[in-house]
Structures are given as structure tokens and as C-alpha cells.
Amino acid sequence: MRHDHIITAKQLSREDIEAVLDLAAEFDRDLSGQADRHPGKLLALAFFEPSTRTKMSFETAIKRLGGDVIDMGPVEYSSVTKGETLADTVRVIEGYADAIALRHPMEGSATMASQFIDVPLLNGGDGAGQHPTQTLLDLYTIRENAGLDDLTIGIMGDLKYGRTVHSLSHALTNFDTRQHFISPESLKLPRNVRYDLHEAGAQVREHESLEAVLPELDVLYVTRIQRERFPDENEYQKVAGQFNIDLETLEDAADDLSIMHPLPRVDEIDPAIDDLENATYFDQAHNGVPVRMALLDMLL
Amino acid sequence: MTDIDTELRVSKIQNGTVIDHVTGGEALHVLAIIGIDGSGGEAVSLGMNVPSDRMGKKDIVKVEGRELSQSEVDVLSLIAPDATINIIREYEVTEKHRVERPEAVTGVLECPNANCITNAGEPVETQFAVLNDGVRCEYCDTIIREDLTEHIES
To answer: Does B104 touch chain A if contact means CB atoms closer than 8 Å?
Structure first.
């Protein structure tokens, strides 16, 4: 893989993805035995909005590789509050660290920031845009459980604002996959994602309920319906609960269906599902470490 | 009536630009693109929906004392793909070229996505890739297909 930055899933070819996943699998076999790979390297964590998994797994990943982190800390204690631009912030951080992991609430922020720096930048989520490192750990999890070809995947929930969905759906077009998108009308895929999927020749179908398509699925990727996105609470109430799953929902599912969620969840997945072998969302979160180790190893 | 006859119906200019073969009815949008609203004092002549051998109906815009920049021509190409640009100096056509659809337009359109980083006061120009049927923000991926002229940077 030869990239200066990881900004969007669209920049990743099948070969790129397989190279990252293969290296991640190698690291996964001995996570604690990689400390001689990048001793002394520093990763800057520039997180302008909350994060648990992405931030902590990046931190774990660089430490597992023998490096360390510097952390910008909460936005309210940074120079952002003095009106500093993101362009200036990353140029300053560039002088301190060997790579930057950036999370920012605005779409396109990672693209813009990368234009101002020479050290590698990894997009840890830009608004409702992209989350490519999440996508790589999603693909790693999918490959472990269902393989990446001849795959039927259902992606359900907030498809409009869900950046993990936008990244994942495009990355899946590199493989022999059929994608079913299940959401309320108001949270369907945005125009630009549809455009990309169409251009990539993806096999895509859209649904407003899970019922009909569930038996076909190898993977069900659930995301949270984001209540705060609805302009009208009544509109949310019309769809609330229709996109949640419990043991009863899964009666018609294939026995080997893999259930995923980028987390955090609220009530989309009944905790009774957690104990099933089909529930892979905590493994999915743990896979962020070897996958981000692989990415950092390739970029540093 | 030939195109030449039509052109003569609008007075000649000494120095400036004649934008000919604009899609019928788009002349006011052309003025918006080049930032002319009358307040700058330029002398402007317009012909709208005039007969054209080639196009059936066309608009023609003549602007005294102003030559278009490449970025203006780029955006112009999106709404008037058949337009020809004539640069006039001392009443003579010194340059004549057709607009060409660019691969991208830079610093001309505003992204309609309020959450796009280009709307956050950062030191970057907007950049849009040109699609077959619209344009797409190179930063946030937002696609604009309709009413392109409403997104011209003020």
C-alpha cells in the first residue's frame, strides 16, 4: 500500500485492503510482540469531538508498536477556543509528531488538513463523511466471520449521517458483495454515496424493513438511529423501534449470520443477543487495535 | 436571420468580452457568474432568446471593459456549454474560443453543505469536480445538480 494519508475508503483498492488485513492478522497473533517495530515514534491524537474506541485503539496500537502518543486533549482546553484554524493546528502538531490521527465534526476536514502537512494523517471520522479506519476493522471482522466475497450484507439504521456506513459501503464494492440498505425513508443513503456506488457498479437494494431481506444475509451491520438528527420528534417516534433487533427478530436469520455494530449502541441491539455466537460487535471493537497497528506500520 | 445579423442588433463594444451562443434564457445567470449586477458601472448589452441558425434560440452578452478570467469561463461552461468567448480590443475580435468543460472549478462555487470544512473559515478555496450532470465538492462530496448559479461565491 502506498499512500501518504488515509482519508477515505474510496482511496483503498482491494489490494490495499487485503494488505492491511493480512498484516493486521499477523499482528493479531502476537499483539504484545511488536514493540520493536516503531520505538520512539509519536502519534498525535487530535480529536475535536468525543471518541472512545477510535481514540483508545489508536493509542493502544502505537504503544503496541513501541511508540507513544501525544494528545491534544479536550477541544475546550485547546487553542481552537482562541479561534485557531484547523489548518494551523495540524501544521503545529506536524512539528511534534510522526503521524496524526484526526477526528473532526466537519465533512472534508481530513482532506483539507492533509493538504497542509507532510506527516501521515489518518482520518478518525469527519462529520457525516468518512471513517476509513473503522471500515478496515469492519472488513477485518467480516472477513474473519463470513469472508469478503460472495457476501450478502444488510446495513441498517442511519444511513444518511452514518459515516461508518458511507465508508463501508464503498469499500465493499471492491469485493463480490450484494448490499441491502435498510432505513426509514428520512435516513436513506445520501446522494453522493449513491453516486459512488452506482459508479462502482455495486449491487445495491434499499428497503424500509429488515423482515424480507433478513434470511438472505450473511452479515447484518446495525447502526444507531440518531434521534438528534430528526427535525421533528414525532418523525423519530414513527420509526423508533422498527430498526431495533432482538432474539425474536432473528428467528428467520441464517444460523451463521454475523451481527455487527460500530458502537456505541443505545437500544438497537437487545442485550440478550450479546451472548450469541452471532454477536461480533465487541470483537469488532477489539479488532481496531491490530488493524490500526497495521495502518500505522505501513505509514510510519 | 443569421447569427451575424443577430449580433448586430446589439451594439458593438470597444474593449471587453462578447459571450455568444449562450443557452437561451441563461444570460442573467452568465452575468451572475461574472459578478455583474449593475453596481460596478460596466456597460452591458444583452440579447435573450434571439434566433440562431445553430441553436434555434440563444442569448448573447456583451460586457464593456471586462475580460473574463479562466475560472469564470470554467463555471460558464457548466451552464452554457456551447458558448463562445470573444475578446474585443479596439472594436476588433482579438481572441475567439469556445468554452471547454473543465475537470474541476476552483474558488468559484460555495458548497451548500453548511457542515463542509470549506464553510468553516479555513484558508482553502472551494474545489468542485465536474460531473456529467453537475459538480461535486472535493472536500465533503456534496453533489450539486440543480441551480448551479445560486452557489456562486459572492
So the answer is: no
